[in-house]
Amino acid sequence: MCIRDRYQRRVHGEIIQQKLQLKDAALGKFAKRYLEFVKTADKLTEAESEAMHKELLADLETIEFQAMKAEMNVHNRRRNHEWAAAECQQLRRTIDTTRAEISRLEAQLALEMKKRSNKMEYENYAKMILDFPAPEQSQEE
Fold this sequence. Notes:
By secondary structure, the chain is an all-alpha fold. Helix content is 92%, strand content 0%. It contains three helices and no strands. The chain has helices at 3-40, 46-131, 135-140. The radius of gyration is 41 Å and the shape is rod-shaped.
């Protein structure tokens, strides 16, 4: 697992926890207002009751919207995490391939260096041989 993945998971968990705490607070407030409404429903006029009912419905719609928004955020974060994990795997494969290529090229370079060394050594021996007179000439002298 990449360091980035671990960091994203930790941050993602913290964000969800914070959002849930906010949602709990919003639901708690809504529940209190609803209980107040139920307790005082007989004492309220029809207009007051209707207004409070509309406010509660609006609050409930806001909470539902926030819940849907949080669900979409979780879905998007999960999708982003899956994408990042796939990218991380692709990066690992690329790194492994590159390392293998480097090892192969190192071996090829060592071989080519050995060939060059042998060629230079051969050329030096050839020069030394050419510097000496031919066997026929050295016997005549």
